[in-house]
Amino acid sequence: MSETAQQEAELPPYPGITLDQVRLVRSAADAEAAQAALLASDVIGFDTESKPTFQKGQHSDGPHLIQLASDELAYLFQVGPHVGPLLPALKAILESEQTMKVGFGLSDDMKRVRAKLGIEPLQVVDLSVALRGGQRNDLGAKSAVAKFFGQKLQKSKKISTTNWAAPRLSEKQILYAADDAQVALRVFRRWLANGNVLPPQKPPKVRRPRPQPPTPA
């Protein structure tokens, strides 16, 4: 174990979110309420979870869960066969240019959201890169919590590799997923409070539709 890892292991635990601070978005009405609450925020936490693949060459069809968090609550959207009624709210939230989304290691998350849902997340800041402060390696959530809060973020590999496509998530899955989104927001708030400022964000690339082959006469 490295010296840094040893120091992090000795820190007091990060308390994390509680179940009463989590909302499972199951209906169009739930989604509309989540949309109103989240878009009232200047910044929200963002993350996704996908059912893991264990066989070589096996392709993930995630995301199976999208987590979005305000300072007060985390909202979990299950992306299963009945996600249709939730999509308008998800699209409005993720494509909003007024509300920033922050998270750790979001590259794959965004690719999967685009591929599966046709949603183009805008105003997204990957804290792994933005907060590394000139260091070569990206800053992970555990290291960020240790650095900014002096606490140890519990990240159970056993929970992270569970079935996120299950129709009913366990309490441990719910708390793990909700924490992933909200801890990013809390770290970002602390980073800003320390006097840091984000550089201007690059405008999103315009994705032009591929030209269609001519229809035979």
Automatic annotation (TrEMBL):
Q: Which GO terms describe its molecular function?
A: 3'-5' exonuclease activity; metal ion binding; nucleic acid binding
Pfam families given in the database record:
DNA_pol_A_exo1
Q: What is this protein called?
A: 3'-5' exonuclease
Which InterPro entries is this protein grouped with?
Answer: 3'-5'_exonuclease_dom, 3-5_Exonuclease_domain, RNaseH-like_sf, RNaseH_sf
Q: Which UniProt keywords apply?
A: Cell projection, Cilium, Exonuclease, Flagellum, Hydrolase, Magnesium, Metal-binding, Nuclease
Q: Which residues form the 3'-5' exonuclease domain?
A: 22-196
Source species of the chain:
Pseudoduganella violacea
Q: Which Gene3D superfamilies match?
A: Ribonuclease H-like superfamily/Ribonuclease H
Which residue ranges are recorded for the region named Disordered? Answer: 198-217
Gene Ontology terms: biological process: nucleobase-containing compound metabolic process
